[in-house]
Amino acid sequence: METYKEQYKSKLGIAGTNVIYLITMVLFITVGAFVQSRSFNSGIIITEFVLVALPAIIYVIIKRGSIKKEMRFNRLYLKDAVLVTVIFFSGYPIAMFVNLIGNIIVSLFGKLIASPIPFATNLNEYFIMLMIVAGTAGLCEEILFRGLILRGYEKLGMWKSIIFTAVLFAMLHMNIQNIFGPLVLGILLGYVVHVTNSVYAGMLGHFVNNGISVSMTFLLMQLPALKNAPVQELPQGAETLGLFVWAVISGFFAVLAGILLIFTMRALKKVNSERAEHIDRDNGEFENQKLRNILKSPKLSWPLYASFVFFIAYLGLQLAYIITGKPLLDLIL
Which residue has the higher pLDDT, 324 or 196? Predict the structure, then answer.
């Protein structure tokens, strides 16, 4: 049985990984926002493949690393795929619940912003949205986060690298109303990729999560009361009381789903512990770097701090719009 060290020694560094993250964020809020404003479908495809996945792949090539090994393009066993699917079906209610809590807090300041993601109203639109929102995001975002960034930070240890990668994942969504859900999702994605040593586990889990979201909105749009409603305005102006009711309902299902989630995560770890020793990386030589030392080093962390400034500024603009109902530029002028 090979240990992880004998399998592969990564050539990726934390400094370079952080630079790629900053570049991706800048491209996301500039070029990505522009192309998506012109056409949502083609804009998402350009954003995911060109702005999210491509810089990560180019960085690995520049470092002369193996894309397959660095990004964990390893086999995903059928049993693992089944367990990963169950994990993300049970994880979705939990992510939805914590996201609703965040939305309740934000709604105290004003009316929530309408979702920029269009809802599918027929089967043709549904399958297109499934491929774009679930397929491209599941593929490209996992290449960046669970492929590149999780690998770059793995010397922090298993859970520290998973959680920190999840934080960066949530930040890149650049949405004050959608932070806590992606954080939970990112932790689960990091866990399944780490345990299976396959980025395909993350891609599958990401697809399942986003696919559930697309499917739920599609089914809701089939209800007679919503069928002829302006779909872009449905989430806008959600009341705090209504969100609270939804949080109570989803909280009940989240508790039940959480029980299933724990058992399934343990089962996934047990299955893989019989195949390799890579899941025990949270001890020993792989924890020879501390996160606080990285954050204290300007050479390593300056891209992170720059990304954080962009993130806070962007969320500030969104909060100003929620409070006033007008873009900040209109208020200034």
Answer: 196
Its pTM stands at: 0.90
Between CA 277 and CA 287, with CA 282 as vertex, the angle to 5 degrees is 120
Answer whether 277's CB lies under 8 Å from 2's CB.
yes
Q: Is 237 exposed, middle or buried (0-12, 13-18, 19+ CB in 10 A)?
A: middle
Residue 54: Cβ-neighbour burial (10 angstroms; 0-12, 13-18, 19+)? middle
Q: How far apart are CA 278 and CA 2, in angstroms?
A: 8
| pLDDT at position 332 over 50 | no
Give the residue extent of every domain in the chain: 12-332
Tens of pLDDT, residue by residue over 291-305, are 888 888 899 999 999
